[in-house]
Amino acid sequence: LNLFLTRCIPGTGTVTAPPTSTVSSTTTKSTSTVSTPPPVVTGFVKTNGQKFELNGADYTLVGLNSYWVGLMNLSPAAMVSAFGDMAAAGATTSRTWAFDEVTSDPGIAYYQIWNGATPTVNTGANGLENFDNVVAAAKANGIRLIVTLTNNWSDYGGSDVYVTQILGAGQPHDFFYSNAKVVAAYKNYVETFVKRYVNEPTILAWELMNEPRCAGSSSSASANCTPATITSWATEMSAFIKSIDSNHLVSVGDEGFFNLPGNANFLYAGGMGVDNVALTAIDTIDFGTFHMYPFSWAQTADPLGFGDDWIANHTVLVQKAFNKPVILEEFGVLESQLDQVTAYSEWYNDVITDGLAGDLIWQAGSTSVTNANDGDMVFPGTSVYTLVTQHAAALKKRG
Ligand SMILES: *C1O[C@H](CO)[C@@H](O)[C@H](O)[C@H]1NC(C)=O
Ligand SMILES: *[C@@H]1O[C@H](CO)[C@@H](O)[C@H](O)[C@H]1NC(C)=O
């Protein structure tokens, strides 16, 4: 999703103090307390045909996105509480951002800082140690994470920062995928992140990029960018991750556009530089992803019906065609656009009856991060939260 959010600034509203200690999920169980022991998180999630699997049993991938959890300077306790709300809704999985590219120290959490063309990964308390807290908080609630390593959009820096810092201002957005120096810099970032958590079962998957496209929000595409550009980049990057981490799944994070030139609907015609079929077919990509925003994508004539087709098309043309799981990784409408309970009920039902592997709604709400609310946060106590809870149970039952 294009977040249109401003970076959260220290001292404004809902930001809490930077974490000073890490969450302990291994607190010894005192025999004199009645507290429930933390869920045990062992084994790596794998795929088996069109399903996910954990320690030989079905793993139901269902839950909510929470891009903000490592970016908002939450205390470890607030992180635990946010994932606790998701777990209470029956979520098994959440998806979060593991990037924030800056050119000067913002005084709050960030993950990589650039001095000219030289990036430095922030390994300190407001960098990777903060992400350690994210992982520990998820683990304490038995939630597994899909971890996204950069952004197509310019929120939290994203790929345009690499291109601008290394190649200068005004270069095409897609040089992120094709320029050797830029690719090397991204690989370096990925390597640092991945190696830190190679043996961590809380990570469900590494994801290459949130919503890659040829063009950027503040930068255009070069004439040379085609779906082959992004597919070739995803092939190289996913193989690289597999070469340093054989434990974890890898996904792309694309919106799921089809590359059927001439199709009357632009979402199916390849124009954005994305070929979801080719991306999911890559050997080192373990499962497919797609997103669904009928209103942002001009599918306003019949938004519900568009969603029905979009889900069916990805189940048939991608999941079944390649015998790999595919997930509806983001979806949402604003209540002002369409009644959310009506829309989500219909699409959740599609996921279950079509046989799609899983889904993650955009996005989890938390009482501690109201400044990350882009209009479709799901808060405990609402009718949408109840629906999410019912759906998680129904998907687990379907298997
Ligand atoms: C990513 O996707 C689309 C492609 O055009 C674009 O509109 C959006 O603004 C993109 N990205 C960036 C860098 O913001
Ligand atoms: C997408 O699904 C709809 C409904 O099943 C179908 O009519 C349409 O032909 C599908 N599109 C493609 C490209 O297969």
Automatic annotation (TrEMBL):
Domain of life: Eukaryota
Annotated Glycoside hydrolase family domain residues: 92-366
Record key words, sorted: Glycosidase, Hydrolase, Secreted, Signal
Pfam families for the chain: Cellulase
Predominant subcellular localization, coarse grouping: secreted
UniProt catalytic activity: Random hydrolysis of (1->4)-beta-D-mannosidic linkages in mannans, galactomannans and glucomannans
GO biological process, one term: mannan catabolic process
Enzyme class: hydrolase
Known EC number: 3.2.1.78
InterPro entries tied to this protein: GH, Glyco_hydro_5, Glyco_hydro_5_CS, MAN-like
GO cellular component terms listed in the entry, alphabetical order: extracellular region
Keyword Signal: yes
The UniProt record lists the keyword Lipid metabolism: no
SUPFAM superfamilies xrefs: (Trans)glycosidases (SSF51445)
Disordered: annotated segments: 15-36
Gene Ontology MF terms in the entry: mannan endo-1,4-beta-mannosidase activity
Family in the record: Belongs to the glycosyl hydrolase 5 (cellulase A) family.
Protein name: mannan endo-1,4-beta-mannosidase
Source organism of the structure: Mycena rosella (Pink bonnet)
